[in-house]
Amino acid sequence: MLIQVYNGHILTPEGWIDGGSVIIEDSRIKEVSKSSRQMDGMDKRIDAHGMHVVPGGIDLHCHGGGGCDFQECKPESFNTVAQTHLRHGTTAIYATLSSSQLHMMEQACQTCDELMRDPRSTIMGMHMEGPYLNPSRAGAQMPEVIRIPDPAEYKHIVEDFDCMRRWDTAPELPGAVEMGRYLTSKGVIAAIAHTAAEYYDVWNAWEAGYKLATHFYNAMPGFHNVREFKHAGTVESIYLLNDMAVEVIADGIHVPATLLNLVYHIKGVERTALCTDALAVTDSDSEHAFDPRVIIEDGVCKLSDRSALAGSIATMDRLIKTMVRVVDVPLHDAVRMASETPARIMGIYDRKGSLQRGKDADILLLDSDINLRGVFSMGEFVKGSDRIAPAEIVPRDYPVTGS
Questions:
Q1: Pairing of strands 224-226, 210-213
Q2: Taking the CA atoms of the chain, what radius of gyration do you get in angstroms?
Q3: Domains in the chain, start-ordered, CATH in brackets?
Q4: pTM reported for the whole predicted model
Q5: Which of 51, 83, 239, 320 has a CA positioned 20 to 30 A from the CA of residue 112?
Q6: Res 288 pLDDT > 70
């Protein structure tokens, strides 16, 4: 089938095309044209009415949505989460498992392997957030399953399942450096998470292959004193390593707008990816989170004792809109951080992350207020994506100057 999406404001790697067209052939982009002329031979034509036509979002950190969590390990739960986020603009998703026992990790990987055999699946792989984390920075992770890296365990998961794409670890733990070298040798992304690491811990991790910081600013220390002496925390150490990328939960709550702006200015578009870190309650009729320890308050998930944030209820459309409307980032940069950068980090930029000939036809339509008005996944229009309510955003926490 040939589909022409015409009269759009199209974002390409070379910049915006005003009044152009995207030609979709089956599941791929056949052509991105500067012309809005209605072409012959099309099976379907869609007038974008001047809306922004941008690449689909890639969420490299998501736990759940639609009332389901990837920890349920069932195909129907995986599909519910993926479809929920797809309607909100996530056209590629990595299934994130919180710290778990080995049997749950195996079950989740088995399900992920099965679903990834479908070439149209939006599930791109498995992401383990733990269980090799620092207990002092556990946040909402289950403390009873947190442990130090076990080579027999993680090698089994990586080598016996096809879906493993990323593993998060506290780099100061015994064996974490060796784990980073192993993961990198197997093509699995090694990321720093839930950590009390200081500069040399982060440096050693980077040397061992850790190239990503998980939900930057969350579950990691910044500048602090050890008695009378000042120490750079994990945050400053990551800033000092220019080549280390970060993911940020850009809901405006987990990381306030001032700090999101700082990340954007220091790390830049090429080293900053937006992620949801969404939990099961996201876009769900239920007011209860999958984890009974978690409450929903102030537009975010928290531990019930309010000692820590526990994940988000954000969706991809909200991330993009928050970066534009609250953080004052140009739309093209916000979109790139939601699509191109995560695609490059996860090694799938050859097929996703930009609107280019031959790539998967994963496309979003955004109106002038940065509200999502339509989603194409592998060339198919996603039902219900044109009826998504406008994304809620939090107030800006700093004045805008010079704009």
A1: unpaired
A2: 21
A3: 2-54+354-387 (2.30.40.10), 56-346 (3.20.20.140)
A4: 0.95
A5: 320
A6: no
